[in-house]
Amino acid sequence: MAEHELPRRGLVLAAAALGTGGAGYPPPSPIDSGHVEGGRVQFPDWRGPADPPGGGAPQPRPPGERIGFAVIGLGRIALEEVLPAFAECKEARPVALVSGSPEKARVVAAQHGIPEGAVHGYGELERLRENPAVQAVYIALPNAMHREYTERAAAIGKHVLCEKPLATSLADCQAMTAACARAGVRLMIAYRAQYQPHHRATIALIRSRELGRLRLIEAANTQVNGPGPQWRYDGRMAGGGALPDIGLYCLNATRYLTGEEPVQAFASIYSPPGDTRFAEVEESIAFQLRFPSGLIANCLSSYGTYENRSLRLHFERGSIEMAHAFAYEGQRLTVQRRVGEIGAEEERIVKPKNQFAQEIDHFAACVREGRQPHTPGEEGVQDQALMEALYRSAKEGRPVRLEPPPGPTRGPDPA
Ligand code: NDP
Q1: Which numbered atom of ligand 1 lies nearest the CA of 245?
Q2: Quick one: fold of 193-352+375-401?
Q3: Helix (H, G, I), strand (E, B) or coil at 147
Q4: Over the stretch 151-166, which tens digit does the pLDDT of each residue have?
């Protein structure tokens, strides 16, 4: 017997000792060790009621029980945000890749534990049909390709989580929702901000009427883009410039924050003359939306001004400011209001969570349980209709009336 091996009797004693926290230590209290209830590990709160409660231990599903995703298109969003986010998911895992760059795909597959046999080219997408580990796809391709890959994934029975914007035309968006409905698969648009905790907290604050009625919204999403060629400057591939790429976050926010649909839109667009990047798509856009309650939203978006992703909401009795509202991280929520005789500014501390993981897990849970996602295809269809109206307004130089969507565009709130 090697020196470090214990005889059987010693093992039994060691195991018994482990159960009491080790020889000589007092046994742990139930508060310290927690307990298992309904298959979940739970700890009673160890703090007093005055402190905010802890978040609890995450309860990830065993990997083999998670919804398996094929990630289609290995560009920046897929590699820098989506694939890393799977490591924080509890309901989903990446199991296949579809790419036009075999060498890159092999490297990425190895990094994420995806078998080489589950890496395919675009022409082989239909081979996913035979892979039972793949229940859903995440489409991270340039905008104009979303329709084709949604239709092909739906045709082989895979659920679709598609990057924003849903497509580059209203007709394409409608074809995508119809194809998924026909195939009996779920379609969700990847509106990450609608799953981001600070945005959820803001929606709750608005609904609570703590600050009275919301009257005005200011939203900006701007950045400085680099040189071409890149698909974002190609009108056919992108469907537009700053508006569908980043201004869309402002547009979508005005709708999910208010729960209303705009009735009138007015837009101005600008592209610097002679800048070949903006020969086909706009550099900058400013737009105003009016809502049935009287609320007005002013939105700005640009590819040509220093990064600003801010949101400010003006209420009867206060205002809310969200810093970095549309960024991947760094959101902060401050409330300005009167407290007694003084004006106060307070930060509402909201625990940050990876919004990509939240969004992917939400879709995976919807697939598992056969439920409607919070941001189904219809949510993207409505924004596309509004973006087309904004371009019309800019072209005609006048406000345009907007029709309400034909039905609800959002499913139940995410958990
Ligand atoms: P990238 O340009 O970084 O990557 C696109 C990838 O698509 C390429 O790397 C390539 O992957 C694949 N591709 C296939 N055909 C083409 C083609 N003809 N031209 C260009 N690329 C092609 O784009 P992003 O990752 O930034 O954007 C992808 C999608 O994600 C867009 O719809 C965009 O709007 C959205 N997005 C969403 C964000 C969010 O926060 N939710 C942020 C950024 C983008 P491969 O080499 O594997 O074939």
Answers
A1: 34
A2: Dihydrodipicolinate Reductase; domain 2 (3.30.360)
A3: helix
A4: 999 999 999 999 999 9
Q: Is 143 in the pocket of ligand 1 (CB under 6 A)?
A: yes
* Residues known to be catalytic: 164
Please tell me the residue having the least CA distance from ligand 1 atom 5: 75
63-191 maps to CATH 3.40.50.790: no
pLDDT at 4: 44
Over residues 207-244, the pLDDT tens digits come to: 999 999 999 999 999 999 999 999 999 999 999 999 99
pLDDT exceeds cutoff 70 at 9: no
Take residue 384 and report the two structure tokens written for it. Answer: 């596309």
pLDDT confidence tier of residue 13, bands split at 50, 70 and 90:
very low
Locate 415 and state its tokens. Answer: 């958990």
Is the distance from the beta carbon of residue 119 to the nearest atom of ligand 1 less than 6 Å?
A: no
3-class SS at 39?
Answer: coil
Q: What is the pLDDT of residues 304-324, one digit of tens each?
A: 999 999 999 999 999 999 999
How far apart, in whole angstroms, are the C-alpha atoms of residue 180 and residue 184?
A: 6
Q: What does the pLDDT average to over 97-104?
A: 98
The domain segmentation of the chain, as residue ranges, is: 63-191, 193-352+375-401
Atom from ligand 1 closest to the CA of residue 77: 25
Query: What are the angstrom distances between the C-alpha of 252 and each of 114, 178, 337, 410?
Result: 34, 22, 26, 12
**Ligand 1 binding pocket includes 359 (Cβ within 6 Å):** no
Q: Cα Rg for the chain, rounded, in angstroms?
A: 25
